[in-house]
Amino acid sequence: MSTSSSRTHGTDAQHRDWSAPRPVSRDDLVLALIPAALLLTVVAAGLVGVPTTMALTAGSALALTAVLDALFLHPPTDGRRR
Asked: CA nearest 42: which of 59, 61, 66, 64?
């Protein structure tokens, strides 16, 4: 039984370059859009004078649209082609 503390899980773990930029995926953009939609609508409501509840309703609708698109129109896949 080995008790080495430098274990790796897989052969690529030793050669992975964590400083290299990775492309932003569609899922990452959807996750960023949810709080951004709510935050931007509240800020816009403060600047324009729209009631906060109306702004949050609009932001929620935008966030819901992004989530529904990500779940039903472009659902996540396991990487295999059909």
From this structure: 59
Give the rounded percent of residues in the chain with a pLDDT score beyond 90.
Answer: 56
10 Å Cβ neighbour count for 36? 15
Mean pLDDT of the chain: 83
- Alpha-carbon separation of residue 61 from 5, 14, 38, 56 (angstroms): 49, 44, 9, 8
Looking at the domain assignment, is residue 51 inside a domain? yes
**pLDDT tens digit string along 25-64?**
888 999 999 999 999 999 999 999 999 999 999 999 999 9
Residue 2 in any domain: the answer is: no
Sign of CA dihedral 30, 74, 71, 27: negative
* Domain enclosing residue 48, as ranges: 24-73
